[in-house]
Structure prediction request, 640 residues.
Amino acid sequence: MHRRGVGAGAIAKKKFAEAKYKERGTVLAEDQIAQMSKQLETFRSHLEEFASKHKQEIRKSSQFRVQFQEMCATIGVDPLASGKGFWSEMLGVGDFYYELGVQIIEVCLALKHRNGGLITLDELHQRVLKGRGKFAQDVSQDDLVRAIKKLKAMGNGFGMIPVGGSYLVQSVPAELNMDHTVVLQLAERKGYVTVSEVKEGLKWERERAGHVLDHLLKEGLAWLDMQADGEPQYWLPALFSDLTSQDVSPEEANQMSP
Amino acid sequence: MDRFVWSNGLLEINETLVIQQRGVRLYDGDDKAKLDVGVVLLSTHRLVWRDQKNHECCISIPLSQIIFFEEQAAGVGKSAKIVIHLHPAPTNKEPGPYQHSKFSYIKLSFKEHGQIEFYRRLTEEMTQKRWENTPASQPIPTATASQAGRTRAVGIVGIERKLEEKRKETDKNISEAFEDLNKLMVKAKEMVELSRSIASKIKEKQGDITEDETIRFKSYLLSMGIADPVTRETHGSGTHYHMQLAKQLSDMLQAPLEERGGMMALTEVYCLVNRARGMELLSPEDLVNACKMFESLKLPLRLRVFDSGVMVVQLQSHSEEEMIVSALDNVSDKGSLTAEEFAKLLGLSVLLSKERLLLAEKMGHLCRDDSVEGLRFYPNLF
Prediction:
């Protein structure tokens, strides 16, 4: 990519090049950019018209939001890329998802001391809804998933692990490979797992099972219950249901961890 | 199905609920009725059906309309049903979901079972015919004074009709919205194709593009939300918008950064900034792209990515050496430290204090003891 050169020679060269291209029927890039500017204005007013009629629909209907997002993806447009984009400015889609992003980060941060930075999508959904309050717009799990995908741009290891028909949302940069993931999936049923269960369920050697479980312990994703009947049990706080868990403050958690 | 009338589903005085069952679909004769799955209620006087999702859609039929009824056993892939044969509708019947029907019977399809009990209670009611003994009077509307029964009935039907119109209007709105959305997407697609053509021409150097034109092009892409791989190589992802943003952030984050030991995780910055803005929020990408411009704009902040992928904004004055020295000093002082302990000492988040310890380790000043009890750092005496 080069700047327009100064001097008669450069100008002549340019005119020659232009003529050559025009001869071949090729439209030049700079002409197209000018064309795009005009088309953009037209598009903007179409979008404005659409917004004046249907802006409410986006806010109210999660089904409509899904449809909207999928269509954008199909044509190669990301309506959430920038708060300065037309979509965000005129349809308000941006603010909806970016605010949701803030709420998701805050919930994950508040619970990190307890679950090590791993939380089920269900629990995240419940807590975000609670935080938003009675009079706020309802959000679906699809909305959360899209907001989380956007958060990935900021590093910090936001990711989603498929487990038991839903997802675990990871909000810390803990390294979790396939082995860890599959053990999490195994533990999903009861909320805990033992070395033997991993051995038998996945047909691994004891050493591999132990190694993976130790890593989860180190990352703060699992707690060890040495007083269980039989073998020690590795519990995953992320998988605790509200019924069996009790809220612990960060200070208490620090006292409890080894 | 033309015997049904619109109803508000409220029980009338002297009318008692006998049994109700969810998951029931109605059939007009042998055809599925143009209604969704709902709840069927049997009272002493009527058979009532209400849509499970849209509670305003509610219809009823007096039990006196029933001639007889029989069970239809479930089959492969078919739920059990009760077939109900009906008298013709009276001429002065109130409006209902169907104007006409060629069938004189309906079916209740029990998708979630419950047909056995329902059949039993229906039999009882049809035998006892309790509605003949206790004619139900109209339910008293909340606001109006007592009127002739006929007028009140019209009032209720009028409300029903309005609700039905509103429901149709909502449905129409949604399908109109989808149609308009489709048209909009067609236009958006044209923009995408045009931008792709331009991008490939820039790449192939077909034509002479100035600096200015490139920047303009990038801002067009930003407006449309189109990804921009070509010009990113030569110009980065930023636009004028991001430059402005970078300057705003630099002003805004000075104080918070000082308070937090000179460093903040990008997610923390995101929350702080967006909470302050309240509306016209920044996207995560906006924030990242703005922060990337700190250095070229000679602002006193830097975006930094640690090996772990954690992204932070740090005050430029907090140099790397200072952080490492501080980490080493603190660890030596206490003999050893975990990330949690270090965090408490400095008033930093655990995440960031861990990154500092790792950095010091990387530079060879600390070494680790990694056990199930946690990660602990010691001065490196090797």
Summary: Residues 29-60 of chain A form the longest helix (32 residues). Chain A touches chain B through 76 residues (CB under 8 Å). Chain A has eleven helices and six strands. Residues 63-72+79-173 of chain A form a domain with the Arc Repressor Mutant, subunit A fold (CATH 1.10.10.10).
